[in-house]
Please model this.
Amino acid sequence: MHSYIINASIQIVPIVLDKHPYQWVDDAIAIIQQSGIKYEVGPFATVLEGTYDDVMKVIHQVNEFLYQKGCAEWITNLQIQVRSSSNVTGDEKISKFR
Model:
């Protein structure tokens, strides 16, 4: 894949009874925070911004963390926007609303 900046939205939906789902979500967000990738936490999803490889690496790390820590079941909802010839950034899409 190219090295332009992409946007991705990731939402983790734990299907568990062992602890409050927000605790699993908080752990997932901590993985994103530690990654060094640009991100913005929202009430329903977290938006990631970086190269395709970097973003996909973080998504993999989140899922691997949940698996390794024993989350019984979860849904990972993803939206990925890729532009083939240039960067696509969150600021470009929402700056006029800020």
